[in-house]
Structures are given as structure tokens and as C-alpha cells.
């Protein structure tokens, strides 16, 4: 099977190598793309990008935390990533006295660098096609269960074997192309990663949610960390004796600047894309999933904003929550618009019709119909599952109630109940600090009203129907629940937690509380009525997709249908290349590809939180005290856009020029192009990056931390 797929891929690539900038390529197979890259301006070789014999660019790129990318920029382990990727670390170290989120943070020497519990970075040691090994023991004709068992056992054996090769190694086996291929990824993980610097949020988050997913953009979205290792350069848990990690490779930084048309190359960890799905999957997203989720989030955001505008305290309490809810909300709107504009459903239906005709009586006969049928079967369950997560799981008091309830542990043998006092106290403190009852209550009423309206009777949970019947409306139900629940009152909760004599009894009181009951009853419903169906149907879909994926490749190759194939993103290391380019978002409008400090000043407004910049920046601008960090017009460059194919997880990825030097830091995409997770339009899909010269400018002029610049290698 491996051989067939490889042959198919090679033929496809030879046939259609000179196509547009779509694609997230596997670094170990980059030799198949290198001619195209070089034709487009890249000056290095495949071995410079990925090599297991010598240091290569991959050794300067890390998976940062759970879902971002970072890169090494000095021989002493200095790492660059986004402000929004380091956000929780910056927040963790912030207090009222030292508000690093508000004011920024700069370690002026190594002693001042701040350790971070739970933060790690991983270098890819190597990756390898292990399809044959993973499918050993599985023969065509065996059941899917037998296949799953073989994959599991073989993967475990392989992982156990390779992690013995060195210190701090971890490995994963990932299915690519829906399990037509398996790859081993071996990583070296470092756990002592310290915060070195971050600009104030008024720079690092400039534009906030207003500008999020938008171009023109002026966000200084970066933060800096340093990796520490033991004295042998090996991974080690935090210790004050650890020393800065000496990377095999780090990026030189180019201050030469960027021009429209320049070659750009992004190396990073894209999280999830679905480029090969059936039209019916896209139709669901476009017509049902996204619109409903957008509507539900609009309700929540409006309620939050209403109360936030009435009180400074509430504005701060809900700023991060609002940002989280708004991020996907805004992206989905761009996605729907993009899918419609591209007529993706129709294009896919036409492709499927032709494929189906071709497939008659062959290996892939019926797979289109099979997938269609499964989507039809899945739809009501998928809808209910999404509704559950966007309504029930959005009720803060209910989430809090269940997490507090989880601090009680019951010993299965003795029945004895114990209680984690410290954990509970921490939860209480964290929750009430940022909770505002009127918002939660109004969201409850609004979201339950929608649940009532949109979930068909036969899918509703019995508990829900009873409550609505009992109270007459979601508003009245909300009134009663928030009146009665002990969680509506922090003082009551604290008193309750202190006063309890018997944990068993107090656990029962919590269990009977209407907020806990709400969470628990819905969770039970989800676990019994919804999840088993979505899980079973999705498994069948995966199976059908395994055939359809292979089918699409064979069909396109034999029928000479031009289509690029690259594995969907799955948080593994990928290469995406393209070039700096503006775009036309609407009729008669053209966006230039780079922004400057002038645009920051145009947006600057002390009255608007998202656009209120530090006074220092205003002064620098007035004096034009720009140092060496200007473009050809004498302004400081801030951001630029390019045609690289990226997604969530690519945040923090290095943007590299034709010489392999760092020119920027990826952090977002333009709104009109967010459908690129499903369908890529080279005309309009653009990734947004921070110009590395703006990073240097901030470090030098705003932070006065040029000792960091001294560590780097700058080239012009
Ligand atoms: N849109 C960017 C990326 O997904 C940045 C997100 C962080 N910023 C925010 N305002 N929430 O995910
Ligand atoms: N902002 C995203 C991230 O955090 C990147 C994107 O979706 O384009 O990874």
C-alpha cells in the first residue's frame, strides 16, 4: 500500500509541480518540491531545509507549548514566538504590582529570566515513513478492528524503541491521508523554557479583536523566551544550574527588508485542515454548522459587550473571554464568505460526479454515495454536539460547579470521600475574579432559548424539557437557577467549603445544586444520546475517507485532473512557500502588502482600548528616532502579507527569505481567506506576519534591551 501511494504522489508532483502557492509540505519529502521552490527564488537546497546528517533549518524550529511554533535566533537558545502564544506565561507572572501584560517585561540579564511551569518546546529530530512497519500483521480482508489493533501495537513498539536513542526523546506515529500512510515523528523536548521579554499589550496586542484576522494590521505580536539545558546540552527539568541551550542551528536575521514578489517560506506546526472532504461536509459547515455557531456567539458577545461598556471592571474581567469567543466567531464568518465565493460545494459536487462515473465497477465504486449517506446520518447528531458545546458548555457557573465537584474524590473500595482543599480554593479564587453574574445569567437565558428553538424535540434531553415546562421560559429558569445556586455567591461558596464537617455530605449538597445538576444532566445526555452516534459515524467516515482519499489521487493522476496533494495539517512540521503579495478584498480595492508605523499613528486613540499605544511610541514617532530599523521610505515597517498556506498552530512560525534568513514572524491570516482550512484561493488567501525589523525596533527603542540584539546575527 505504501508503494502505491508513493508512486501516485510522485507522479502527481511531477505533473503539476509549477502550481500556485497552496500546500503544507512534509520537510522530509521536500526534495520533491525543491525545484519549484528554486524556480520561485529559493537559493538553498533540500538538505538545508531538512537533513538527518547535518544541521538544517528544521533544527531552529520548535513546537512551542501545545499549539504554536517558535524559532531559535541566537547561539544561546534565544527563542522568538508570538505575544499571543506566550500570553498565558506573561499573565502567570503578572500581578497588580508587576503587570507585565500591561507594561511589558524585559529581563535585563539571565538571572531575571522567568521559569515557566508546564511550558515545553520540542525539536523534530527526524521523521520517517513507517507505513509498512505500522501495518505489519494486517492483511487485506481482515477487519477494521484487527487493523486498529495492529496499528496500535506496532506504533507502541516502534515508539518504545526509538525513544531509547537519546535523552528527552518522545515520539508519535501519525496517520496521514486518512491512514493511507503513517509517519514517525521523533522529538527532543526541553522543559526549562524561560520568559525573556514581551512588549506591553498595547503593542503586542495592538488592534485587539477589532483588527484580529484583518489586514491592514499593526500588531507587534511577539514575545521572547530562552531554552535551558543541562551542562551537556541535554533536556533537564528546571534547575538554577541549567545553562542556555546551544542550538544545532539558529536563524540569522535579515534587515534587508521585503518587497512585493519576494520569495517567502514558512516553517512551522499547522494544526488542522480538511482540504479533501466531500461536498456534503462543506455544505454542513457553510449552511448549518458555522452560521449557527456564529449566531450563538453573537448573542454571547453582545451580552458581554453590553456589560463591559458599562463598567471598567467588567471590561477587564471579560477581555480575555471576549477575545477567545470572538477569535473563532470572526474566523467562521470569513470562512463562510470564502466558501460561498469559491462555490466550493458546487465545485466539489461536480468533481464527485465525475469521480463517481469514473469509479463505477472499480475499487472506489460507491464511496461517494457512502460518504454522502454517512454525512446525512451524522448531521442531526453533529448539530446537537455543536449546540451542546456552544450553549451548555458556555455557561460559566455550570463549568465551575462541575470542576469544583471534581475536587472531591471517592475511594472506590472504602467509599471514603476526600477533598482537595487547596485546589478548590484556587478554583474559587480564579473563577470569581473574572466572573460577572448578570452576563452569565443573561447568556444562560439566551442560549437555552436557542436550544429550545433549534434542537428538535426527539433530540432534546429529558431534563431540559422538564425544566422548560416547569418554569415556562428560559428566562424564568435562569432566574430560578441563579437565585438558588450556591455558586451565584462567592461568599456562600467560601463559607460552605470552610464549614463542611463531612465531605460526603457537602459533596451531596454540591451535587444537588441546580448548577451542578445542569452540567451533570446535560453531560449524561451527551454521553448517552449524542456521543456514541457521532463517534461511530465518524469512525465509519474515516474509513470511507481512507478509500476516497486514495481514490482522488488515482483519479486525478489517471484522468489528468490538475490538483495538488499534500497531507492535511495535523500539528506536524510543515513547509509552506509563497511570496509577498497584496490582494483585492473587494471591487475597486487593493491592499498593499506591507504596513508601517504611520498606520499605528493613524489608528492611535487614547479613548479606544484596542488602539491606545504607549506614550513612548508616540514620542519616538514625533522624534523619528527609528535607529537602523527603517524601510526604503524611512518609516519603520510593521507587518506584511504573503501567499503562504498556513493555519492555527503556524502562529509564531519563522518567515524565511530566499537565502534562508529570518524576515518575519507569522501570526494570522486575512479574514477573506480563512476558508483556506477547507479550500485555498491563491487570489485572496494571505498569511499575516510581523516584520522582524519591527521586533528589533521595539527591543532597541522601546525596551532598551539591545543586549538581546547583540546575541543575534544580523545580515543585510
Ligand atoms: N487570529 C489569530 C489566530 O488565531 C490570533 C488570535 C489571538 N488574538 C485574539 N484577539 N484572540 O488565531
Ligand atoms: N492566529 C493563528 C494561530 O494562533 C494562525 C492562523 O490561524 O492563521 O496559530
In the residues, how many domains can be counted? 2
What CATH architecture label of the largest domain applies? Beta Barrel
Q: In this structure, how is the largest beta sheet organized?
A: 11 strands, antiparallel
- Bound ligands, each once: arginine, aspartic acid
Low-confidence stretches: 14-18
Q: What name is given to the CATH topology of the largest domain? A: Thrombin, subunit H
Distance between the termini: 48 Å
Class from helix and strand fractions: alpha+beta
- What number is the mean pLDDT? 95
The total count of helices amounts to 26
SS strand fraction? 15-25%
Count of DSSP E strands?
A: 24
Gross geometry: globular
Radius of gyration: 27 Å
The share of residues in helices is 40-55%
Task: Give the C-level CATH assignment of the largest domain.
Answer: Mainly Beta
Amino acid at each position: 500500500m505504501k508503494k502505491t501511494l508513493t508512486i501516485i504522489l510522485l507522479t502527481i508532483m511531477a505533473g503539476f509541480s509549477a502550481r500556485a502557492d497552496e500546500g503544507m509540505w512534509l520537510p522530509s519529502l521536500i526534495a520533491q518540491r525543491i525545484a519549484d521552490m528554486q524556480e520561485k527564488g529559493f537559493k538553498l537546497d533540500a538538505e538545508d531545509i531538512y537533513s538527518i546528517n547535518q544541521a538544517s533549518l528544521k533544527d531552529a524550529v520548535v513546537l512551542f507549548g501545545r499549539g504554536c511554533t517558535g524559532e531559535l535566533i541566537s547561539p544561546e537558545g534565544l527563542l522568538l514566538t508570538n505575544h499571543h502564544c506566550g500570553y498565558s506565561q506573561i499573565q502567570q507572572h503578572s500581578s497588580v504590582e508587576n503587570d507585565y501584560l500591561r507594561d511589558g517585561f524585559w529581563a535585563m540579564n539571565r538571572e531575571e529570566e522567568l521559569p515557566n511551569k508546564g511550558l515545553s518546546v520540542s525539536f523534530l529530530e527526524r521523521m520517517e515513513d513507517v507505513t509498512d512497519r505500522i501495518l505489519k500483521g494486517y492483511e487485506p480482508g481482515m477487519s477494521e478492528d484487527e487493523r486498529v489493533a495492529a496499528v496500535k501495537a506496532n506504533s507502541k513498539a516502534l515508539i518504545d524503541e526509538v525513544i531509547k536513542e537519546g535523552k528527552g526523546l518522545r515520539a508519535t506515529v501519525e496517520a496521514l491521508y486518512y491512514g493511507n500512510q503513517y509517519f514517525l515523528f521523533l522529538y527532543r523536548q526541553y522543559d526549562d523554557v524561560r520568559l525573556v521579554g514581551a512588549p506591553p499589550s498595547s503593542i503586542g496586542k495592538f488592534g485587539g479583536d477589532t483588527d484580529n484576522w484583518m489586514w491592514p494590521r499593526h500588531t507587534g505580536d511577539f514575545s521572547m523566551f530562552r531554552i535551558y539545558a543541562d551542562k551537556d546540552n541535554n533536556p533537564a527539568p528546571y534547575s538554577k544550574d541549567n545553562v542556555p541551550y546551544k542550538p544545532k542551528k539558529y536563524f540569522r536575521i535579515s534587515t534587508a527588508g521585503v518587497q512585493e514578489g519576494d520569495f517567502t517560506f514558512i516553517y512551522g506546526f499547522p494544526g488542522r485542515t480538511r482540504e479533501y472532504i466531500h461536498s456534503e461536509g462543506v455544505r454542513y459547515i457553510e449552511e448549518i454548522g458555522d452560521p449557527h455557531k456564529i449566531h450563538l456567539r453573537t448573542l454571547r458577545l453582545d451580552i458581554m459587550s453590553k456589560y463591559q461598556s458599562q463598567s471598567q471592571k467588567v471590561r477587564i474581567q471579560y477581555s480575555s473571554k471576549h477575545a477567545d469567543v470572538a477569535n473563532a466567531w470572526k474566523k467562521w464568518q470569513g470562512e463562510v464568505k470564502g466558501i460561498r465565493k469559491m462555490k466550493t460545494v458546487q465545485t466539489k459536487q461536480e468533481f464527485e460526479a465525475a469521480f463517481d462515473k469514473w469509479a463505477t465497477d472499480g475499487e472506489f465504486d460507491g464511496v461517494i454515495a457512502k460518504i454522502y449517506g454517512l454525512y446525512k446520518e451524522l448531521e442531526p447528531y453533529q448539530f446537537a454536539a455543536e449546540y451542546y458545546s456552544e450553549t451548555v458548555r458556555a455557561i460559566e457557573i455550570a463549568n465551575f460547579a462541575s470542576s469544583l465537584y471534581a475536587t472531591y474524590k471517592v475511594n472506590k473500595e472504602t467509599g471514603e470521600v476526600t477533598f482537595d482543599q487547596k485546589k478548590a480554593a484556587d478554583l474559587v479564587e480564579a473563577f470569581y475574579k473574572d466572573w460577572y453574574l448578570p452576563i452569565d445569567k443573561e447568556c444562560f437565558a439566551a442560549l437555552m432559548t436557542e436550544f429550545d428553538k433549534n434542537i428538535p424535540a426527539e433530540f432534546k434531553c429529558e431534563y431540559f424539557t422538564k425544566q422548560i415546562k416547569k418554569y415556562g421560559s428560559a428566562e424564568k429558569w435562569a432566574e430560578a437557577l441563579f437565585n438558588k445556586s450556591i455558586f451565584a455567591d462567592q461568599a456562600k461558596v467560601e463559607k460552605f467549603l470552610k464549614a463542611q464537617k463531612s465531605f460526603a455530605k457537602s459533596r451531596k449538597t454540591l451535587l444537588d445544586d441546580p448548577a451542578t445538576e445542569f452540567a451533570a444532566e446535560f453531560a449524561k445526555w451527551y454521553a448517552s444520546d449524542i456521543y456514541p452516534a457521532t463517534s461511530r459515524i465518524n469512525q465509519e467516515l474515516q474509513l470511507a475517507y481512507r478509500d476516497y482519499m486514495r481514490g482522488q489521487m488515482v483519479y486525478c493522476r489517471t484522468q489528468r485532473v490538475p490538483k495538488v496533494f499534500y497531507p492535511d495539517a495535523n500539528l506536524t512540521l510543515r513547509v509552506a512557500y509563497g511570496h509577498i503579495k497584496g490582494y483585492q478584498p473587494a471591487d475597486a480595492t487593493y491592499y498593499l502588502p506591507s504596513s508601517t508605523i504611520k498606520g499605528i499613528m493613524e489608528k492611535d486613540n487614547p479613548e479606544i482600548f484596542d488602539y491606545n499605544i504607549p506614550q513612548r511610541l508616540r514620542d519616538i514617532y514625533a522624534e523619528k528616532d527609528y535607529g537602523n530599523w527603517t524601510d526604503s521610505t524611512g518609516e519603520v515597517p510593521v507587518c506584511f502579507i504573503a501567499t503562504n498556506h498556513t493555519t492555527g498552530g503556524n502562529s509564531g512560525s519563522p518567515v524565511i527569505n530566499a537565502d534562508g534568513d529570518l524576515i518575519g514572524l507569522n501570526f494570522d491570516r486575512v479574514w477573506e481567506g480563512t476558508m483556506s482550512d477547507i479550500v485555498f484561493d491563491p487570489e485572496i488567501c494571505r498569511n499575516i506576519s510581523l516584520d522582524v525589523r519591527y521586533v528589533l525596533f521595539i527591543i532597541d527603542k522601546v525596551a532598551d534591551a539591545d543586549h538581546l540584539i547583540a546575541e543575534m546575527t544580523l545580515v543585510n
